[in-house]
Every structure is written in structure tokens, then in C-alpha cells.
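User: Could you check the structure of this?
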Amino acid sequence: MTLPPRQTPQRAPLRPPFRMPLRRRITQAALLGAALLAAGVAQAQWKPTKPVTIIVPWAAGGATDQVTRLAAAEIEAGLGQKIVVVNQPGGAGSIGTKATMDAPKDGYTWTAGAAKQLGTYPVLGMIQSKLDDFHLFLAVTNVSIVSVNPGSPYQTMPQLLDAMKAAPVPVATAGNSSSGHFAMEAIAKATGAKYRHVTYDGGNPAVVATVAGETPVTTQLAPEQAEMLKGKRLRALAVVGDQPLTIEGVGTIPPITQFVANFPKVTTGFGIFIPKGVPAEVVATVEKLWAEKVVTSEKIRKYAADRGALFTPLYGKAAYDAVWPTVVTDAYLLQEAGLAKVSPESLGIRR
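Assistant: Sure, the predicted C-alpha cells are below.
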């Protein structure tokens, strides 16, 4: 796939992410991908001669770790080689991502995570990555949940917002530029709420910290919170989105738009990323396996339903087009929050 350089795709004025109903978009993309493959577009078959490594740049047990291991298991047999998942947390995911970028471009080192962060790391002055430095293979879309420790005084989202407007409340996330961080920044911008950012090396540690009472609030992703919510060790107040979310064993969680008007979309596409520059047959083979194994995966579909995620398998241009608007939204959230070290416009990220 050839993409415009430095994240400056020529396109019509930017639309909000996922303007078309998401499930319809995914279905169309999957059908198109299958048709292209059937027509013989991806002919070359890569036969790896040693295990493939996927560097998960977050702690074990988080949303990235969970879905990466599921997707790797689905395509492993088709590759005919073991896929080894290695956790390398730190720097809000930037350390493991940089390790992948620096590895030989032989197709044997991939990374994973929230695709939009590939575009926002340079805004924070972390690493010089771009969205179009990678081939994107998305599996699910995640939303954040505002949840509190059951011992906290906050029973409803309005109560928490009132408290945050009066004084900063500690909030646990996986660090700067994590999904939980962007969710909280969006809340702060929309409501004037104040918070003290308490960062951890991944979503799972941030959730565990809130369960333990180190912080009263977390805004991490639904898959990272689901088991704690089912066990009533966290209490969900709102989904950071415009649709309610139903999790089996938890019930239906209301959208934050029920309490806050004009709230931006901050959904996050998660998947596996292969650096550009690897042999073409590597990408062609993974695209073929993604279409055959991941797009049709009942295991990942069930995981998404159980954990409050959306099953949204995409790859190629469809994945890029789905992620790019979220890069733009998050880059300007960072700038408006005073966290940007580099101007988004100087990086070719334009509204």
C-alpha cells in the first residue's frame, strides 16, 4: 500500500471518525478485501524460517496485550511459525514501538497497540513515528469507561464532575497519550473538570491501582476493566462515547453524552503493526491471513462482546482511513491541553 508522505493525505475536508455506521463500514471493507484477494492481488506467500516477535509496548494483561495474543493465535498456523509476544512497557508505549522501528526490516519484528498513537508520539516529543510508517492490521475498537473505586463517594457521573470542578481528583491511566489519558483530557475540555494525572505502565496496572484504592478514578479501556466491573470491584459511571455499552454481568453503562453536550469522539482502534520497508511478501501474506482468519474470527468476536469492545477487523487503506481522523482529534486535544511539545501542523497533521 502506498500512502502520502508525512501524514498529509489529499482528501476532502476531514470528517469525524467513523461517520458511516461502524459495523457497515467494517462489513464493506471486509468484503472488498476478500474480493481483492480472490482476484489474485496478494499472490506472494511468505514462509518465515524462524519465530516472529510482536513487541507489545504495554504491560501484560492490558487491552493491547489481550487482543494481540488472540490475533496472533489466529494467524500463527497460517504462517507456519511460532509468534512470540513480548511485553516491553514504558514511555506510554513509545519504548517498545521504537524498538520495533529500530529492528531489522526483515519481517520478523512487529508491534501492537492503539494505532492512533503512532501519529501522536511525535506531538509529545517522544519518538519520530508516523501513521504511514506502518502497515496497520486492526482487530477491535475500544472505548474508555469512567469508573470509580466502590469506596469512593461518587455514585454518578454528575457527582464526579461536580467534585472535579471544585478541586482536582486523582485519575489513573496508562500514561501520557494512552486511551485513558485522552478520555480524561476530552472530559476536562468539555466540562472544565480538573484532575491529577496518575500514570502507570499499562492499562491493567492503572485499573488494579484504582481497585486497590491508590486512586479513586480510572478512565482506562472497557476490556481492561470488564472483569473488575463484573466482580463489583469497580463501579462504572459512564462510557466515554455517544452510545451506551452493555457488558454481560455488568449491565448497560450510559454514554457520557447523556451528561455532557458536544463531546468529541475518542474511540481507539487496536491491532498489530508491521513497519514499512519489510519485504512485500510479508505484508501480502499477513493481509491474506487477516482476511481469512481475523475478519472471520469467532474468538475475537466473542472476546469483543464479553469485554465491551467492537469487533472491527480492518487492514490496508481501510485501516489507515479509519485511524487517521483519530490522530487529528488527539493531536489537537494534546495541543489544547498544553501537552504538545511539537505543533501538529508542523508534523503535517491538519484539522
